[in-house]
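Slide 14.
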Amino acid sequence: MKHLHFLSVLILAGLAGTVIAQEAAVKKYDLRYNPQGELVTRQELSAKIDNVTMESNPLGIEGWMKSKLQHTATAIDAQKQTFIMTLKLDDIQQEFNGQAMKGKTETSLCLEVSPLGELVGPQGRNFDLTQLGTAGIPTELLAVMCYLVRFPDHPVAVGEEWEIAQTLQVDERCMPIPMNVTTKLDRVEHDRYIRLLSQVRVHLASFRAPNPLGYGDPVPINNGEMTISNLWRIFDLANGVVIHAEGKARFNAQVDMGGFPLNVQVDWSMALKPEPQETQQPAGTR
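Slide 15: predicted structure.
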């Protein structure tokens, strides 16, 4: 009987040792921005309106935007433990309901960011991210959400997810943008390229945007909420920068049509991709 008890203890100890070994073998990644010097990358940002409905009725409206985008990150300030991220959009092209839209062809954002992706504050004068572009697509906001990833303050393994509530305010003059982001470490390639899968919910303050009927002056938009589903981003862990992103977004709000609030829904898809090699300028850390 004593032998059986001793044997069972050995088996249980062996099983416990196996579990501990398996847990120790699970690799965890310390995700963070870590630019060592000035890092410059050139991308292309694009978005396309897939569907517009008003009071659940399709309006048959189309729209798209595309832009070249240069991302620049400085080395981390050893004392402040932050770095400066600059997003410069140029050659912005937009079309709404078959018509090329006139508007700004370039713009830029300059942000102070922590290694964990927390927006510490703006640098210089930026603009109000709650303003939609003339094609009905929030170009600048999409650029920020592609590049600005909030990481957890602890290492994570593949399959783990984390949820962070934050407020974006890129300028003191701008309305703050509350947002909630749930992110999962989906997979890792070559111990360098991190695939992150996120669900994002953003609440926008009231603003004015193009008339969804396709004509007339801009109209007031109230109670706006944007949801980005299945936003996946490829993060280069070695350089600390997002190099590819894709996702689908849905915007729900009430449009003030001459004093009559009408429910409107806009669906669009977006992508951030490397600039084609034939036009790409040298990029990297220098």
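Speaker note: Helices lie at 2-25, 139-147.
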